[in-house]
Amino acid sequence: MEPDVRMQTDLGRQKLYSPITVASGTFDLENLDFFDQEFLGAFVSKTITKQPKVGNPPPRLYETEAGLINSIGLQNPGLDSFISVHLPRLRQQLKVPLIVSFSGTSIAEFQEILEQLEDQEGIAGYEINVSCPNVENEGIAFGVDPKVVYELSSALAPHTQRELIIKLSPNVTDIAKIALAAEEGGATAIALINTIWGMAIDHRNGKSRIKKGIGGYSGIGIKPLALALTYKAAQSVKVPILAMGGIYGWQDALEFFWAGASMVALGTANFIDPLSVPKVYKGVQGFLAERDLYLGELIGKCEL
Amino acid sequence: MNEIKPGLLQRAIYSREELSGDYFILWIWDEALGKLCRPGQFFEIRAHASLGDAEDSRCLPKLFKPISIYENAGGRIGFFIKKVGSGTASLAKLKAGDTLELIGPLGNGFPVVSGRRILLVSGGIGYPPLWYLQKELINHNLIFWLHGGAGQSDVFPCDEVWTMDGSFGKQGMVTEGIANLLNDKKIDLVFSCGPMPMLAQCAAICTNLRIEHYASLEAYMACGIGVCHGCAVPIGNPDKWDYLRVCKEGPVFKAEEVLWNLM
After folding, report:
1. For tag attachment on chain B, is the N or C end more exposed, with fewer CB atoms within 10 Å?
2. Residue B2 pLDDT more than 50?
3. What are the structural domain ranges in chain B?
4. CATH code reported for the domain at B8-106
C-alpha cells in the first residue's frame, strides 16, 4: 500500500502514515486476516497488567439498542506472559507501529511495567489506561483526579523516549483539567474516551444483563459524548488527541478530526464490521483528495 | 485447535425453509467452504449491511450472531435459526436471493469418533449442531437422541421427545430421561447442546456415572474470533481454572471441565 501524505499524522513524536487506529481490547492479530494492516497508523494491543487477571464472571456482554455493554474485567495473561509469548508474535507480524496498553494498581507498579517494557524492542509507544482503581487512593480510579494523573504521567515521562499516551476515562467531572494534567506531566498525547458506565436489565424478570451489573458502554450511542469531550480536551491541550467513542463510519471519523483529534480509533465498529478500518481510511482519504486538503488542515477547525 | 483463518464472506441465500414456531433455516451453497466445516463449529452471520460505505452512517447496524452449522452436505450449508432477539429477528426477514455476511467456520467442533454408544441430548435451539454431528457419526457408532423443548413447536426429529408442557412426547425436562437411558443403552459417550441448566444437569449425571461428555456452550459474542474475551466461560478444575473463550477454545468443551456453578 502506498502511503498517502494527506493522511499523515502523529501522536507527539513519530510520524504515522494513517490517522486510523484501533481501541485497545477490540482488535488483535486475528483481525489482520480481514484487511491489509497498513490501513492502520498504529496497532494498540489489549491492556496488560503486572499480574495475570482472570477477568469478570459471565455474562460479560450485552448489545443495546445503540452500542455494546462489556464487562471483561481486563482479562489478560499478565506482563511476563505478554513479553514472552504475545509480544514476539506482535513484533513478528506487525509492520505498523505497536502501542502497548497497560494499567497498574499504583504509580510504582505503572513505573515497574514501563521499565520492563522499555527493555523490549519493537514498541513505539504506550497507552496508559488510567480507568483502574488506585489501591493507594481508596480504590478510586487514577483517571478521576487531575493531581494523580499529573503524578502518574510525570512519573513515567522521564523514563521513555517512546510515545506516552494517557487514555482518559469519561466518567469524570472535568476532562479538560485531567487532559491538561496529563500534558503537564509529560504525556505526548491524550487518548479519549474509554467506555462510559452502562447497564441493561431484562425487563421481564429484573435480571441484570451483565453479571457485575454495571459495565462499560461503547459504540454509536456514546458518539456525541465522545465528540464533546474530544472538543473540550482539544481546547485545553496542545498535544495530539487520539479520539474514540462510537466511530463507525468515515463521516464519524471526520467529525472527530474537526473537533480536534489528530488520530481516531475504532473499537466496537471492528465487531460490527471487520472491514471498518479500511472503509473509514478510504472514506477519509477520498474526502481529503476531493477537496485537496491535508488531514492537518482540518484538525480542530470545527466552526461554531 | 482450529488453524483455519477466518475471513469475511458474502453469500447469497439460495433458499429459506420455514419450520414450526419461530424456527427457520437459511441455506447457502459453497463447496470449498463446506470442506472446511466440522460438526459443532459455527459461523458469525448477519444480514448484509456494512458500515462506512453508506452515504450516511447514522443507521444502527448490529453485531453478527453466532449460529452453529445445522447441515453441510457437499457445500449445501444450513443455518437453523430461532428468532429470539433483534439480531435473529433481522435474520428472520431474509429471503432467498438476499445476501448473508459470514465469518467462519469458527471454533472447535465435537470429536469425531467411531465404535461408540452415543447419547445425544439437545434442548430447544441446541438441536441443529447435533443434527450435523449425528449425520457424521451415524455410520460408525450407535446413536440415541433425546430432544426436549418448551412445547410442540420446539420438537424436531429424534428418538425420544420431551416437552415441558406435555404437548408432545413425554412431559418434563429432557434430562429426566438421561439416567435410565445411559444404563439401558450402555451409553459410553454423551454429546449435548442446549440451555445452560440442561447442560449442567446432564453434566452432573454423566460425571456421577463417569461417562465421557462433551457439551457445546452458547454465549453472547462480540467478535467471534477470540479477540474481545466477551464470551468467556470458567473451564478447568475447582482449584485451577481460567476463563476460556466459547468462540475460540469452544464452543465444545469437556463437560467435566466446565465449572457450571460459576456460570
Report:
1. N
2. no
3. 8-106, 117-262
4. 2.40.30.10
